[in-house]
Design brief:
The complex is a heterodimer of chains A (about 260) and B (about 260). In chain A, about 30% of the residues lie in helices and about 20% in strands. Chain A has 7 helices and 9 strands; from the N terminus they run E-E-E-H-E-E-H-H-H-E-H-E-H-E-E-H. With about 260 residues, chain A is of the alpha/beta class. Chain B has a single domain, classed as MetI-like fold, CATH 1.10.3720. Chain B is built from 11 helices and no strands. In chain B, helix 4 packs across helix 10, helix 6 (about 115-125) crosses helix 7 and helix 9 packs parallel to helix 10 (about 215-220). Classes of the chains: A alpha/beta (about 260), B mainly alpha (about 260). The interface of A and B includes residues 76, 82, 87, 92 and 137 of A.
């Protein structure tokens, strides 16, 4: 388990400031969801934590001296096109982890696709391979950028449940970026909302409620109401293009979740 | 093929038989006609005289020795230029500061006349084998570097970021992510390289080596032996075309498969 401290993180892109003086302490083993409208800097924040964006002011510090093992699901699947699904997974692992990789493909509901090439899979299937790859890394820190966005709603709910079970069993620190406020409340131990324009934190709430969450608990409903009030002024979310094969979820739609 | 036979569709002859062979024969006929019109075998020998001259040098072993010497120089210089040029090209393509600082040097090297490099190498290092190989390598490496730089610039950044996050070993990144993307540039530079290298080697031999096709051409020039010049040149062209057909093209097909599958 690894904790993260962000100290005064500011990121500017030419004239535009997307993140401004973000200071946060993320506890080891917590599940933090970052919500906010498109372009507010959620992905940039993940990239800074992952070490992919170094053009920021401020500091990222770990709770331990060593660098964390990071597993990441990007907005795009980012699979190597000329490697099969199983070879894409083993690229980040060892050959001895083959059985584990196949089990993870089962977990993300892709049995029998190990030898397929990424282009033979739909966009949603590729995203699930990317999720399996991130889990295979045995991460201390799992960074998820809208991992379930282009999946049909029933499958997304099943995968959400498995993600929650994985978190409870392994206790990695997870940072999830999503547009889906219900998903944020259903999954995480803390929700952070970034404000448009200012690039600052608009809301930071702990959710000390047990799993599974049915969204019928008054505290959950109250937090959802608060988030929705906040989101009322957000610009409409711009989703990455799906492949059309799998249904896209509503961004803030309220569903009954059993996680 | 089987389907065509089953449907009793008349089979078309392969392209080389229908078009390439007749075109080649037409070129020979044209050569023969031109030689007959000029009617001066010393100035413009017929294909048959050229063939006879080539055969005479072949049986004495002279032609094969010259071919072997030239080919050896081409291969050594080609390999050196590919290795050095690729390393420079990838470094410039992957590092913006390096490209900003040294990109101008590459432009100068690309525009340096081959003759100048050859003469300078012979002046600085003497009329030695090393000087010859260095001169050819210096001429060829910038072209390889320029092509590889473009390939390295076009590497998929998103994939490189993904493997960076997962801390994939450098060797695995190179083998499975970088090299498959660079393969087309590598083949393109090898093709361009081979054609350029052997032409420069002939000049290097002509100016300062005691053997090889280039040296022989200078000798034939001194004796006004046009048939000899043509025979040696054609023999070498045949060798280079064979390398292109039996080594470079199959390699190209293989790397294509490697990348897409």
């Amino acid at each position: 388990m690894i904790g993260i401290r962000l100290e005064g993180i500011t990121r500017r892109f030419s004239e535009k400031t997307v993140l401004q003086e973000i200071s946060l302490a993320i506890e080891p083993g917590s599940f933090v969801t970052v919500v906010g409208p498109s372009g507010v800097g959620k992905t940039t924040l993940l990239r800074i934590i992952a070490g992919l964006d170094r053009g920021f002011e401020g500091r990222v510090a770990w709770s331990e001296a060593r660098q964390p093992r990071i597993g990441m699901v990007f907005q795009e699947p980012r699979l190597v096109p000329w490697l099969s699904v199983i070879d894409n997974l083993l690229l980040i692992a060892t050959p001895a982890q083959r059985a584990e990789a196949l089990a993870l493909l089962d977990l993300v509901e892709l049995p029998g696709s190990a030898d397929a090439l990424p282009r033979q899979l739909s966009g949603g299937m590729q995203r699930r391979v990317a999720l399996a790859r991130a889990l295979l890394a045995k991460p201390d820190l799992l960074l998820l950028d809208e991992p379930l966005i282009s999946l049909d709603s029933t499958r997304a709910e099943r995968l959400r449940a498995r993600l929650a079970a994985f978190w409870q069993a392994e206790r990695p620190t997870i940072i999830l970026v999503t547009h889906d406020l219900t998903e944020a409340i259903a999954l995480s131990s803390r929700v952070i909302a970034l404000a448009p324009e200012t690039g600052r934190i608009a809301l930071d709430r702990s959710i000390p409620l047990p799993h599974p969450r049915h969204m019928t608990d008054p505290a959950e409903a109250a937090l959802l109401g608060e988030l929705r009030d906040l989101a009322r002024n957000w610009p409409a979310p711009a989703h990455p293009p799906g492949d059309g094969a799998e249904e896209r979820e509503g961004a803030t739609g309220l569903r009954l979740l059993t996680i | 093929m089987k389907l065509a036979a089953a449907l009793d569709v008349p089979r078309r002859r392969p392209e080389w038989l229908r078009l390439k062979l007749p075109s080649f024969i037409a070129l020979l006929v044209l050569w023969q006609v031109a030689a007959m019109l000029i009617a001066d075998p010393a100035l413009f020998p017929t294909p048959l005289i050229t063939l006879e001259t080539g055969y005479r040098h072949l049986v004495t072993g002279e032609l094969l020795f010259s071919l072997a010497m030239t080919l050896a120089r081409v291969m050594v210089a080609f390999l050196l230029a590919m290795v050095i040029g690729s390393a420079i090209g990838i470094a410039l393509g992957r590092s913006q500061p390096a490209d900003a600082i040294f990109g101008g040097w590459l432009s100068i090297a690309l525009n340096m006349p081959a003759l100048v490099t050859i003469v300078l190498c012979y002046v600085w290092f003497g009329l030695t084998e090393t000087a010859a190989i260095v001169a050819v390598t210096i001429n060829k490496a910038p072209t390889v570097a320029a092509i590889m730089r473009e390939g390295a610039r076009a590497l998929d950044r998103q994939l490189l970021e993904a493997v960076e996050v997962f801390k994939v070993s450098r060797w695995k990144v190179l083998r499975y992510v970088v090299l498959p993307q660079l393969a087309p540039s590598f083949i393109a530079s090898a093709r361009a390289g081979l054609a350029l290298t052997w032409k420069i080697v002939l000049v290097v031999e002509l100016l300062g080596r005691p053997n090889g096709i280039g040296f022989q051409i200078r000798t034939f020039f001194n004796y006004f032996d046009i048939a000899g010049i043509l025979a040696y040149s054609l023999a070498f062209i045949a060798i280079v075309l064979a390398i292109e057909s039996f080594i470079v093209q199959p390699l190209e097909r293989r790397t294509g498969r490697w990348r897409t599958v």
